Amino acid sequence: MSISVIIPLYNKETSIGDTLTSVLGQTYGDFEVIVIDDGSTDQSVTVVQRFSDPRIRLFSYPNGGVSLARNRGVSHATYPLVAFLDGDDAWLPNHLKEIHTLSVTFPQALVYATNYIIVDSNHTKHAPVNTEIVLSQGSEGIINNYFDTATRTAPPVWTSATAVRVQGLEKIGGFPVGITLGEDLLTWARLACQGAIAYSTAITAEYHFQSFEELTTPGKKPDAVDYVGEALAKLIPLYPQDTHAITRYVGLWHRMRLNEYMKRGESWCALHEMRKILHYTPKDYKSYVLLALALLPSFIRSFILTTRARIQAKRIA
């Protein structure tokens, strides 16, 4: 099966060259590459234009965000299976071959994902991210319970290690546009309610992670109106095989928001998220710890977060 590779691009001039090189170095060669320039203001487009491979097509649009860029890429796709890759990540040479094998072996699935590793700014490769995913068979298979898995492990579906059938994206209306945090998480949850997710434990992609400080510094500010949380709650009746698991998943989303507010010292917003967590997962004791941190003086909170991040960094090393 031919594959369309979608790369959203916004100000990645220092990394997009390596990203494209990793695609062109695939052992499986039946693919096209669609680069969607999302209004870059640096030399990203110039770097892409230096590649002469006819399989690469570049389209430029005004900045509209990563979800819109991905949706635009899908609209240009020639093939019914689209693989996503961000402009600062990379694939190992076996990635598309593994995706192709999954698509042939499990034609009933809507999503195909693989394991991946984290590579830090020092080019140190850390341990595989997911090691406890329960599959229907062996080292590759259908994820038995996506939401149960997603609440117990690192995200089993990560955008730069995932391919989706276009018909599946059409069913859910594509990636949600207009939100700043959680667009990928909501997309995979919606797809999990629509069909099967096939997974391979083979390591085929690299998530380029800067440093442990990213774990303690504020990231994207949560949307004031929690569109993702509202949309996730609506999915609960659509996953009757395990309503407890998907409910825990919704609670996990609110814990993520609480954690982000906690980094910012926004205690009242964190308290609001805590109320949501108690509604969905009243026994989520980790969230009580996060809330307590949010109420501490900023210098104490910063010290604890930094220590916690260092411990997390050692665990994945």
Please, could you describe this protein's structure?
The protein is an alpha/beta fold. The chain folds into two domains: 3-210, Spore Coat Polysaccharide Biosynthesis Protein SpsA, Chain A (Alpha-Beta Complex); 218-316, no CATH class. It has helices at 16-24, 44-49, 66-76, 95-105, 146-152, 166-172, 183-194, 227-235, 243-264, 267-280, 285-294, 298-316; strands at 3-9, 31-38, 56-61, 81-84, 90-91, 111-119, 125-128, 140-142, 162-165, 197-208. Strands 1, 2, 3, 4, 5, 6, 7, 8, 9 and 10 form a ten-stranded mixed beta sheet that branches. Helix 8 (227-235) runs antiparallel to helix 9.
Break the fold down into its secondary structure elements and pairings.
Blueprint: E1 3-9, H1 16-24, E2 31-38, H2 44-49, E3 56-61, H3 66-76, E4 81-84, E5 90-91, H4 95-105, E6 111-119, E7 125-128, E8 140-142, H5 146-152, E9 162-165, H6 166-172, H7 183-194, E10 197-208, H8 227-235, H9 243-264, H10 267-280, H11 285-294, H12 298-316
Helix pairs in contact: 5-9, 6-7, 7-8, 8-9, 9-10, 9-11, 10-11
What's this model, at a glance?
By secondary structure, the protein is α/β, with parallel strands linked by helices. The protein contains 12 helices and 10 strands.
The CATH architecture name of the largest domain reads: Alpha-Beta Complex
**Low-confidence residue ranges:** none
The CATH homologous superfamily of the largest domain is named: Spore Coat Polysaccharide Biosynthesis Protein SpsA, Chain A
Please, what is the average pLDDT?
Answer: 87
- Terminal-residue CA separation: 36 Å
Number of helices: 12
How big is the Rg? Answer: 20 Å
The secondary-structure element order is EHEHEHEEHEEEHEHHEHHHHH
Main sheet: strands, sense, barrel: 10 strands, mixed
Characterize the overall form.
globular
Overall number of strands: 10
Q: Note the beta-strand portion.
A: 15-25%
How many discrete domains? 2
